[in-house]
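Running co-folding for zinc ion.
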Amino acid sequence: MSKTTPAVTSQPGGAPEKAPRIWSTTLMFVMTLAVALVAVPWYAITHGYSVGAWVLFVVFLYANGMSITGGYHRLWAHKSYDAHWSLRVIYLIFGTMALQNSVFIWASGHRVHHLNVDDEDKDPYSIRRGFWFAHIGWMMREYESGKPNLTNIPDLKRDPMLAFQHRFYLPLALATNFGLPLLAGWAIGDVWGTFWLAGVLRLVVSHHVTFFINSLAHMWGSRPYTEENTARDNPVLAFFTYGEGYHNYHHIFAHDYRNGVRWWQWDPTKWLIAGLSYVGITRRLKRTPGFQIQRALLSMQFTRAQEKLAKHHQAGHSHIEQLRQRIAHEYETFTAALSEWAKVKEQWLEEKKRLVVEHWEHSQLQQRLLEIEASLRMQRRRLRIISAQLA
Ligand SMILES: [Zn+2]
Ligand SMILES: [Zn+2]
C-alpha cells in the first residue's frame, strides 16, 4: 500500500533511475525527516515535552494510520465493506493528514499494485527494484510505473466527497497538518511541544511505517498462503502497521476486510471495522470462506512437503519412501475433498435458490460443506506431522 506521485511522463526508453526528480515530494520527505531528527530532540533538551503532547502524538498517529488502513486501503481501494458517511468523513480528515496523496491517486496506484504485483515495469512499488525504491524511492521521481491511471477507479470517482478531497488536496493537507496539531496543542496548553511531536514526528513515523508495507512486507516474513508473489506475513510488522503486516494473506484474498484472519492475529483495523458493524456504522463486511483459506494453506503445505521430498531424494535417503506414500495418499484425499466440495456447493446453491432464506443456513448441504472444511483442517495437522519427520 501507499501513495503515487503526480502524473508526468518519464523519459521513454530511458533507464528508470534517470526519471526526473519530483522536487516537491523529495524536499517534503527530506525536510520533515531533518526536522524530526533535529528540532524534536532539541526541544526535548531545551523545554521538555508534556504528557499531553505525547498522548496527542499517539492519538494522531493512530488516527492517521487507521484512516489509511481502514479507509484508503480496505474501504476505498478494495471495497471490502461499506461505511456510514460519518466514518468516511473521519477517514478523509485523518487520511488527508497522513499526507499520502488523495484517495483517488492512492487507491488507483494500489489497485495497479495488486494487479501487477512484482512486475518491474507495471507495479508502482515493485520490490524487485529494491528496498529503497519500494519503500520511498518510487515517489521521488517521475517513473512511468508510478504514473496515476485514474481509469481504474470509476466507482470512487462517483463519490463527491472523494472528488472534493482530490480537488482541494493541497490546502486540505496543509490545514490538517498545521491546524489540527496547533489547535490540539492550544487546547492542552502546550502549542509547540504538541506541534513537534503530534505535528512533525507523527508525520514522519506515520509515513515510514506505512511505507514498510510496500518494502519490508514484501521481503521479510513467511508465505503460508501463496508463493506466487513476494508478499509476506509478519506479526512484527503487523504490530507497527495496524494489522497490515499479514500481507501474504492480503495479496491472495484482497477483498477480505481482515488481513490478520485468525482471531488472535494483531489487526486493530479489522477489530475497528468489525466493532463498528455492531452499531451499524460499517456494513456488508466481506469474508473469505473458510474452505478457500484452508485450501490455500494446504496447497502450500503440499508444495513444501514435495520440496523436502525432492531434497531427500537427491541426498539418497531411500528410507523416506514410506513418507512419500503417505503424502501421496494425503494428496489424493485432498483432491477428493476439493471435488466433493465443488459438487456439494453446487447442490447447495441450487437448494438455496429454492428455499427461503431462514432455512438454507441450516440445510444438510451447508452442514456437509462445514464438515469438508473441518476435514481439511485435520489434514493440515496430519501433513504437518509427516513434514516434521522429513525435516
Ligand atoms: Zn503489496
Ligand atoms: Zn491491498
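Result summary
Residues 16-283 form one domain.
Residues 1-16 have pLDDT under 50 and may be disordered.
Job closed.
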